[in-house]
Design brief:
three-stranded antiparallel beta sheet; 33% strand; hypothetical protein PF0899 fold; single chain; 113 residues; binds zinc ion; alpha+beta; elongated
């Protein structure tokens, strides 16, 4: 499952941050998830709870910040908002749109004790 490896990646980031920051408990993990990423939030939430067991983030809350999608339209020579990866340009209808933001998932911050 794609979300399981994402959750394991988050666990790695959290454990490294805990080792460097010297904290023993993570209360919540704030994630930025782009509208154009293929992350299933509910599936990720489930995997998150599973992989964080017996770590500093056992029982931590997973908070999600939505990042809107945007792309560069070659016809318009402009950045346009798009809601899915292969959506046409909302201005001119062209499919020559290169996604430029909202394609990734990343850890924004950790709330720790
Ligand atoms: Zn366009």
């Amino acid at each position: 499952m794609h979300e399981m490896s994402l959750a394991e990646g988050i666990r790695g980031i959290v454990q490294q941050a805990a080792a460097e920051g010297g904290f023993a408990r993570v209360r919540s993990v704030v994630l930025e998830i782009g509208a154009l990423s293929t992350v299933e939030v509910e599936a990720l939430r489930f995997c998150f709870d599973v992989v964080m067991r017996d770590t500093v983030a056992d029982g931590a809350r997973m908070e999600v910040v939505d990042v809107p999608g945007a792309g560069w339209c070659m016809q318009c020579s402009a950045t346009v908002p798009i809601s899915a990866l292969y959506d046409p340009c909302p201005t001119c209808g062209s499919y020559q749109v290169q996604a430029t933001s909202g394609t990734e998932m990343r850890v924004r911050e950790l709330e720790v004790d």
